Amino acid sequence: MHPPETDRAELERADPGRAELAAPRRFAALFALAALTGGAAGTLATAFHLAADNVQALRLFLVSHSGGLAWAASMLATAALTWLAVWAVRRFAPEAGGSGIQEVEGALAGLRPFRWARVLLVKFAAGAAALGSGLALGREGPTIQMGAALGRLTAWLFGRDAPYARHCLAASGAGAGLAAAFGAPLAGVLFVVEEMREHFHFDFVSFHCVVVACAAAQVACLLLAGPGQAIPMPVLPDPDTASLALFLAFGLTVGLAGTAFNACLTRTLDLFEPLAARPRLTAALAVGALTGLCAWAWPISAGGGHATLSAVLDHALAGPAWSLLALFALRFPLTMLSYASGAPGGIFAPMLALGTLWGVFFGAAAQGLFPGACPPPDAFAVAGMGALFAATVRAPMTGMVLILEMTRNYQLTLPLMLACITAAATAASLGTRPIYRVLLERVLARESATPPI
């Protein structure tokens, strides 16, 4: 082992700012800034949630008071909000479109610039419009990107110009953004360590900055919004050991679904991204109008997915199990179109809704085939949420912990592990690559193909 002096000398040559943090007092100060970043991320995430809910409430109010033209009002309101969100992104901060997670990873790797001030303003305003419009998008992507932007803001405010400090605070803000979006602080830590592992500079200081920030974000959310279960559902019974094989088979089907999800998303982006400014805005109008029509005809088919999760897990959907498959078949393309429109929003929440629908359908079918020997369909819903995340994002540990924290069904840890690992392995064996890696490569390719001005 090298003596401490040698370690410090090597660290000084690699990154002088990082070497300065080798002393306990230095990294204690950075931990305090990480806590400040996490608290700010939790506060901003709560405000963002409230803003999106208020936009949605206004839209639903206008639709409900439109009488016989409610269908037209729904189409018009969603189309207008979608157009406004996409226009704001394209006009002021193109990097704020979509999830934004790939932009955070690019910034952490030093491959993408991070205009944190623009991202904060545009992502918040345009994201609230997009989520309130009823598009099939989630708030976790925006909160992750805005959290990372808050990390850069904290570094700027306190004069932390060293690349290492800025990296630690941006990564801390990103993890805090996920923790705040789902009430899952441990998943926020794992997301940075597992999903961003190629770009995150892991060491004692950087890791604990992320831990501190995620904890602070959760505390801020608890103080502002109060305690609560992210996905309200009862505690399910322990599954029988003999039924575990069903979760392996289920994971295989979810791996196929995850492969289809990534392929369809990239193909839909191929259709939208080459469009010039006006055709792209026209396409956003069309996506908004279609989503608005679906929201009027079948409300739980639109939106980020929380209403869908609640309806399915509360067993509020009437009709046979095939209705779940029909809802899956409708939400799947709506998710593709919503994301490809360029509006700010993530794909985590829509994936959770799709995983739930497929899980309950699979569980109902399995109960018909193996009566008395099959766990309740809701157990497959829990497994489906984590497994689809694992298959698409290729971060199975994050998916497992995220769902356990959100549902608090810790007794389903083993079935969830089996489904997640099987889904991720199936997707990998079919050549499916992690979706955020693909999205980052698309951003970098598009940037390199743009001629300099």
TrEMBL record:
Pfam families: Voltage_CLC
Topological type in the membrane: Multi-pass membrane protein
Keyword Membrane appears in the UniProt entry: yes
Listed name of the protein: H(+)/Cl(-) exchange transporter ClcA
Native source species: Fundidesulfovibrio magnetotacticus
Transmembrane spans: 27-48, 68-89, 120-138, 169-193, 205-225, 245-269, 281-301, 321-340, 347-370, 382-404, 416-436
Subcellular location: Membrane
Highest rank taxon of the organism: Bacteria
GO CC annotations, alphabetized: plasma membrane
PANTHER family per UniProt: CHLORIDE CHANNEL PROTEIN
Keyword Metal-binding among record annotations: no
Molecular functions (GO terms): voltage-gated chloride channel activity
Major location (coarse): membrane
Keywords of the record: Chloride, Ion transport, Membrane, Transmembrane, Transmembrane helix, Transport
